[in-house]
Amino acid sequence: MKKLINAVEDVVRDSLVGVAAAHPGSLAVDLENRIVARADAPVSGKVGLISGGGSGHEPMHSGYVGAGMLDAACCGEIFTSPVPDQMMAAARAVDGGAGILQIVKNYTGDVMNFDMAAEMVSAETGSRIESVLVADDVAVQDSLYTAGRRGVGLTVLMEKILGAAAEEKQDIDALLSLAKRVNDGGRSYGVALTSCIVPAAGKPTFDLAEDEIELGIGIHGEPGRRKARLGSAAEVAGELVEPILADRDFTGAPVIAMLNGMGGTPLIEQYLVYGEVARILSGKGVTVARTLVGNHITSLEMAGCSLTLLNADDDLLRLWDAPVNTPGLRWGC
Amino acid sequence: MGMLISMPELSTRLVSTWLKDYADVINENTNYLTDLDRQIGDADHGSNMSRGMAAVAALDPTTFPDAPALLKKTGMTLVSTVGGASGPLYGTFFLRLGTSLPATGVLDAAMWAAAMKAGLDGIVARGKASLGDKTLVDCLSTAVDAAQKAADAGKSFAEALAAASKGADEGRDATVDMIARRGRASYLGERSKGHLDPGAASMAMLIDSAARTLA
């Protein structure tokens, strides 16, 4: 393992020290509780938007805290969900009197910890606290016999769109119905070229041969749907698009597309793959209205990429275009 | 029957002995548990449990009025330090043990079986896993059944602990052939077969530790 760290057990804390040093004035970092909040929180009359999860997916979530997106992010250990104490501290920090909304990725541990936090916050403060479960990964069968679809790339789009709506002071019920539209219209699929190394484990999470890829991966290095031989970028692009379009019809409405790097794939390859994706989508009659390419929800240094498509309308596109000012996403301001 | 010597007094000291023993076991098996998790999960079970049990082992038993208070604090400590799925599940288990056991008195087989059953019910309510899903429930519920059977047969507390331990090991080993339906391993489907569930492994260690230290 070759990493720029001090000690395995201090990775998350030391990284947050850096976040605080890099963004003075705009972000408030609580090292004790490992939360990153907007420096101006709580914003009066605004629904407090909280997310979080295991660390190692940067810029998600701490990099999406700021005007137009999250009010606070809870940073768990690497690939381990945060604990309820962190969500409670975040809720106290961002409660502007209009309620609190937690954006939770559908992973067993995340769901349980955020559930416990919600119970504890409402018992302690009486504030209304609701949760939105992101579940967009088409690699997982959504049935009674699995934990359900994982929340992956769509989380970034969810945070941006709900963040914009919360900034407009839309109320918590409006945000919940908006979240349902985003969830219903969003799908993702990912591919890994290599595993990553969790610092505490010290060795790769899974093994892939030099010429192998893993299709249908999540965001923690957990194995995917199947292994395949690495082909050309055009072939990989086809492998990304096909399961998404097989799951949902994306013709007939504009689409927001995100081609996301998993952390170890350079932008030149991401753009190259996106060029192939755009060509395939156009050939299938899918109209891309907005595009985001880059490392937005990563798995440490894993090589690979994921594709997220979101069926949009004028309202969603307006919220997508609204100003956002965070370390990880910034436009219109 | 030798019943008196096999029925210890419920005390913070006794419970603390169990918790410290378990912390040692987890510490010794951190890499083993993480490696089990690496194969079908996300390679953090050992380090997560180790962090949580180190915090539990650091609790001073003399600062608690009774054993249930120490057990509840253990549950809260795990919820607050472990994260992942294990934090809420193990935390809930100890919280339920703490609310089920009386503050004082002599531990007997029926009392222990009932407390473990309360812990199991809490885990099932929190995690929504059932028997056969390839989780720690498979280990714990087999252990609870064994303890209950021993209690129903009028066996001693020590015998119930030993039966629970044996049941836990059997339940743990049964997860090898199962297809995961909960947790991150569920994403593997058929490919999860042939692997021991890491949560079942750490749960068996907890029940084995109880048999070693509480009798």
UniProtKB/TrEMBL annotation, chain A:
NCBIfam families: dhaK1. One of its GO terms (biological process) is glycerol catabolic process. Coiled coil: none annotated. Keywords: Kinase, Transferase. Residues 7-331 form the DhaK domain. It is an enzyme of class 2 (transferase). Pfam families: Dak1. The keyword Kinase applies. One of its GO terms (molecular function) is glycerone kinase activity. Its EC number is 2.7.-.-. This is PEP-dependent dihydroxyacetone kinase, dihydroxyacetone-binding subunit DhaK. It comes from Acidipropionibacterium virtanenii. The lineage of its organism: Bacteria, Bacillati, Actinomycetota, Actinomycetes, Propionibacteriales. GO terms for cellular component: cytosol. The gene is dhaK.
From TrEMBL, chain B:
GO terms for molecular function: glycerone kinase activity. This is PEP-dependent dihydroxyacetone kinase, ADP-binding subunit DhaL. The gene is dhaL. InterPro entries: DhaK_L_YcgS, DhaL_dom, DhaL_dom_sf, Dihydroxyacetone_Kinase. GO terms for cellular component: cytosol. Residues 13-212 form the DhaL domain. It comes from the Bacteria. It comes from Acidipropionibacterium virtanenii. Signal peptide: none annotated. Its EC number is 2.7.-.-. GO terms for biological process: glycerol catabolic process. Keywords: Kinase, Transferase.
